[in-house]
Amino acid sequence: MAFAWKASGLTYNKYLSVAARVVRRSLKDDKRLAAERRGEMELRFAKWTNGKQGDMKSVADANAAAAVESASSS
Amino acid sequence: MLSRAARPALRAGAVSSARPVAPNAATFATLREIEDRLKSIRNIEKITNTMKIVASTKLTRAQRAMTESRKYGQTSNTVFENAETKAMEGEDKKTLIVVASSDKGLCGGIHSGLSKCVRRMLANDPKADLVILGEKCKAQLGRSNGKNIVLNFAGVGKDIPTFSDAQAVADQISMLPTDYGSIKIVYNKFINATAYEATPIEAFSEEAIANSPNFSAFEIDDEVLANLREYALSNSLFWALAEGHACEQSARRNAMDNASKNAGDMITKYQILFNRTRQAVITGELVEIITGAAASEE
């Protein structure tokens, strides 16, 4: 069983969040505003090597970059 | 009688005020000092009180989010319970510890409780890697166990954690180069409004799920297994984040409640001290006036 989204480099979680976003956007305006707040994500992260903290990066950007990378490699 | 007696003394006092009034000035200064401190303590009380009210309104929302998120975690755990999944033991597989704290302080010992629990776990398993959500535990564990940290996330705990938060974190964790035998998520378990406890929950690796004794009860293809693992990880993370958030709010409410009470105690103490000092200054002045009057009558 091969999934189209897997071939394009998405993880299952990414696939779910895209699907959830589509559902939220198709709601009526009043409900949509409340629902879209539940989809917000503003995390930043940093990689640590040898006890030193690296640069802070936005998680959303990094996830998107990783998706592109795994899509081109597979 | 006093007023008549006091008048010449007043004149005498006016003359004497030309001389330096060092001892008198000192008592007035302390009165002023006490007044200033009283004022600042009152301001602090106002601030802590407001923070308490904000925390208690946030707490009800956080608690609601927590009970909802518990369903996510427990439902996804039912699968593993029925399959009798167990964590991979021993071997050379590494363990990953995910610490669910937050960015904000001023809420008692909630973050240091987590840090202590993680340090205990690290003492048993010094090779384990750490992923830290939130700045507070990063600061604490970064000092003592900086070498174990592989990732840290900031921006956690501003508001009620969303499922997208958990998903993004789970994605980053599954992208880590090392293949972990088991993932433990350490979070503050909400017992009641005043008690919480740092507890680990397990998120299993693919092998652990595939090796579980009752695995055949479910029809799971190998390809779907990876999806299940990712999804289960983000479910558990969401649960841990939401419950940790509720604990933090209730801890903050309690901390601010105590702070307001302490400020109230200090206010009454300083109020009494202030009144006494003022009384002492007045009495001192009266004594001076009377002795002055008595001296000038002779």
UniProtKB/TrEMBL annotation, chain A:
InterPro entries: ATP_synth_F1_esu_mt (IPR006721), ATP_synth_F1_esu_sf_mt (IPR036742)
Top-level taxon of origin: Eukaryota
Entry's Gene Ontology cellular component terms: mitochondrial inner membrane; proton-transporting ATP synthase complex
Pfam families on file: ATP-synt_Eps (PF04627)
GO biological process entries: proton motive force-driven mitochondrial ATP synthesis
Signal peptide feature range: none
GO molecular function: proton-transporting ATP synthase activity, rotational mechanism
PANTHER family to which the protein is assigned, alphabetical: ATP SYNTHASE EPSILON CHAIN, MITOCHONDRIAL (PTHR12448), ATP SYNTHASE SUBUNIT EPSILON, MITOCHONDRIAL (PTHR12448:SF0)
Record family assignment: Belongs to the eukaryotic ATPase epsilon family.
Protein name: Epsilon subunit of mitochondrial F1F0-ATP synthase
Organism: Glarea lozoyensis (strain ATCC 20868 / MF5171)
Automatic annotation (TrEMBL), chain B:
Keyword Translocase: no
Single GO MF annotation: proton-transporting ATP synthase activity, rotational mechanism
Xref: Pfam families: ATP-synt
InterPro entries in the cross-refs: ATP_synth_F1_ATPase_gsu, ATP_synth_F1_gsu, ATP_synth_F1_gsu_CS
Record keywords, A-Z: ATP synthesis, CF(1), Hydrogen ion transport, Ion transport, Membrane, Mitochondrion, Mitochondrion inner membrane, Transport
SUPFAM superfamilies: ATP synthase (F1-ATPase), gamma subunit
Gene Ontology cellular-component annotations: mitochondrial inner membrane; proton-transporting ATP synthase complex
Major localization class: mitochondrion
Membrane topology according to the record: Peripheral membrane protein
Subcellular location(s) of the protein: Mitochondrion inner membrane
Superkingdom of the source species: Eukaryota
Family, per entry: Belongs to the ATPase gamma chain family.
NCBIfam families listed in its UniProt record: ATPsyn_F1gamma
Assembly notes: F-type ATPases have 2 components, CF(1) - the catalytic core - and CF(0) - the membrane proton channel. CF(1) and CF(0) have multiple subunits.
Name of the protein in its database record: ATP synthase subunit gamma
